[in-house]
Structure formats: C-alpha cells, structure tokens
C-alpha cells in the first residue's frame, strides 16, 4: 500500500524557536494525485512543502518520500522537484537560457540536442514560447511562476511540490498550469501544492489538507468537505424586499444578517440570510405562495470556502512583528 504513496508523513513537528510551525502533521498523498494544502497565512504550508523538498528536516515524526524514509539531515529526495517562496531564476538570462542552464547543471550537457528539445517542450507546456528569448528580469510574477514550473518539469519529477503556484497567474496562465498538472498526474506524478484560498484549489484538486496554526484541521476528498448540512450565508433578491424581509424574519431556522462590514457595499434590495437548506426551502415556498418572485438566491461564499473558513477561523496565530515572508 505504502509503495503507492508519494508522501507519507506521520506526526511531523517542526519548530522555529518558540514557534511551532508544524504540530504532529499526518499526510498521505498517493501517486498520480493532485493534493492541495490550504490554510491561512502562517498556517505552516511553506514549512511542510520545504520538508518535502528536503530544504529542512522535521524535528519529530517520520516522513517518507516516494517510499524512502527521510533522515534528520536536510537533503533533496530523489525524484522530487518544485520550489517554495518563488522559483530561483537568473534575471539577466532569458527564459530559455535559464532552463538550458538548469538542464546543464543536472549533468546531461553531454546530450545538448535532447536538452534543447526538453527545454523547448517545457516552455511550450507552460505557454512561454512567445517570450522564451526575453530576459526573466522583465517577467511578471505569473510568468516567473510558470517558468519555475517549466524548470521543475525538466527533471521529470515523480513528486512535484509547488508553493502558492496560483499567485499572480492570469486566466491564460492558470489554464496552462492546470493543463500541465493534470497531464503530470495522469502520468502518475503526485503533485502537492499550496494556496491560502480554497477556490484556487477547487478546479485542480480532488483532495485537500487544511492546515490551521500547524495542525491538520481536515484531510480528505473535497466532496467530504463540502458535504454536510451546514448553516450558510445566502444573498436573496426578490421582487419585494420589504415583504421578503418580513417573511424571512418569521421563518424558523432563518436569520437575517447585517451586511458584512468587510464585504461589498450593502445593497438595500438584497437580503443576507443565514440558514440550512431545509429552512431555506420553506422560505422560498412561502415567498412564492405570497406572490413574491425569487430572482436570485446564492451562497455568499461557496460551501467549500465556508467549510474552510469555519475550520480555520477560530485559530489564527498572531504573526510576530516584522516576521518573514
Ligand atoms: N525560517 C523561519 N524562522 C522563523 N519562523 C519561521 C520560519 N519559517 C516559518 N516560520 C514561522 O512558522 C509559521 C508557519 O510559517 P509558514 O510555513 O511560512 O506558513 P504559510 O506558508 O502557511 O503561510 C509562521 O508563524 C512563521 O512565522
Ligand atoms: Mg507560505
């Protein structure tokens, strides 16, 4: 069974002085899966990904990468590629030169033609062919992220580790990155990537681990996270807001909320309600029975985002003043 796992972490703990960045983390990622690591800033995502890349070692617990136990001295495990905190690139070289330099560093310079083809293919996969001969110093964050992914592809990893790869990506960039990751997964590569936003991961991952202050708050399939009859906040637009407000106030299980002070400017026409689905059903039938047309009824945040917020909101770690990253 474990032979099929690309990552197996048990009770992994990592401290920086007083800060417990990871606290007894368990993680299992099968080969061929795209696994999302999600959590607020400071949750421990970068720290965990750094352990997978061998940039640091855990203080306690055990970690197996591609079936091989990782020791207590930091060392890059065989078959793993990726980056944390942005890819390391030479700004004065072009995209193509950066990849060629990496390919040469990996010791296959004997086969220049194969390297050139590999570089061209990697640039094509991430959609950077048009800017291949431009200097990286002028690249946007999204372009650097894509070039970092291309660099990781050169080594044909069996485990790919990406820290916040969606940062700075425009829609076209996102399409390329998603395409690359789905293709890799289909070929059996495991991908572990992080984001501080649940919606980044919804289109990409079938399973996620939610970290909150260094602990696993949830790990499993996305559909399990979205399931469950939770109270959610909904926006309701009807043909008669005053009548809808009265009916909502009189419907058991439905609470009218004040507009979120951090949300978009309040809209007198739209009510914000908190309810479970059965109570919402009652409200809608009552409104329709009263001749009030329901024009829009939608959750304020997606059920997945709501589950994520509920699991992470209670336990935010205060960030020390002037803290890194
Ligand atoms: N090298 C480090 N030195 C000191 N503290 C660190 C270091 N790396 C991470 N931390 C602390 O560990 C916690 C987790 O950080 P990090 O893994 O970067 O979180 P995330 O990537 O989820 O935002 C934070 O409180 C952070 O300040
Ligand atoms: Mg981070």
TrEMBL record:
**Species per Swiss-Prot/TrEMBL record:** Kitasatospora phosalacinea
GO molecular function terms attached to this record: ATP binding; ATP hydrolysis activity
* PROSITE patterns reported in the protein's UniProt record: ABC_TRANSPORTER_1, ABC_TRANSPORTER_2
Pfam families tied to this protein: ABC_tran
Q: Which UniProt keywords apply?
A: ATP-binding, Nucleotide-binding, Transport
Name of the protein in its database record: ABC transporter
The signal peptide here is: none
- Stretches the record annotates as Disordered: 245-267
Q: Which InterPro entries match?
A: AAA+_ATPase, ABC_transporter-like_ATP-bd, ABC_transporter-like_CS, P-loop_NTPase
Q: Which domain of life is it from?
A: Bacteria
* Protein family according to the UniProt entry: Belongs to the ABC transporter superfamily.
Q: Where is the ABC transporter domain?
A: 7-238
């Amino acid at each position: 069974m474990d032979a099929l796992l690309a990552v197996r972490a048990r009770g992994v703990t990592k401290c920086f002085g007083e800060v417990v960045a990871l606290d007894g983390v368990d993680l299992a990622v099968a080969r061929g899966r795209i696994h999302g690591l999600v959590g607020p800033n400071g949750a421990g995502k970068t720290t965990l990904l750094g352990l997978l890349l061998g940039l640091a070692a855990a203080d306690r617990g055990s970690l197996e990468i591609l079936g091989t136990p990782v020791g207590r001295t930091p060392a890059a495990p065989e078959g793993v590629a990726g980056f944390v905190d942005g890819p390391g690139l030479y700004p004065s070289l072009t995209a193509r030169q950066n990849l060629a330099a990496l390919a040469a560093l990996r010791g296959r310079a004997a086969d220049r033609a194969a390297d050139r083809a590999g570089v061209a293919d990697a640039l094509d996969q991430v959609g950077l062919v048009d800017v291949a001969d431009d200097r990286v110093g002028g690249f946007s964050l999204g372009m650097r992220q894509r070039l970092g992914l291309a660099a990781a592809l050169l080594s044909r990893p069996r485990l790919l580790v990406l820290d916040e790869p969606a940062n700075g990506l425009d829609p076209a960039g996102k399409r390329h990155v998603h395409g690359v990751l789905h293709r890799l997964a289909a070929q059996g590569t495991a991908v572990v990537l992080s984001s501080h936003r649940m919606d980044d991961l919804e289109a990409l991952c079938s399973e996620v681990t939610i970290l909150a202050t260094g602990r696993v708050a949830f790990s499993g399939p996305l559909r399990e996270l979205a399931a469950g009859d939770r109270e959610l906040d909904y926006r309701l637009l009807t043909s008669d807001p005053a009548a809808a407000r009265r009916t909502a106030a009189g419907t058991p299980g439905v609470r009218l909320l004040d507009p979120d002070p951090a949300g978009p400017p309040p809209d007198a026409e739209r009510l914000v309600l908190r309810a479970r689905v059965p109570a919402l059903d009652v409200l809608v039938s009552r409104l329709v029975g009263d001749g009030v047309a329901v024009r829009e009824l939608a959750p304020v945040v997606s059920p997945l985002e709501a589950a994520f917020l509920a699991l992470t909101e209670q336990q935010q770690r205060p960030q020390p003043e002037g803290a890194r990253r």
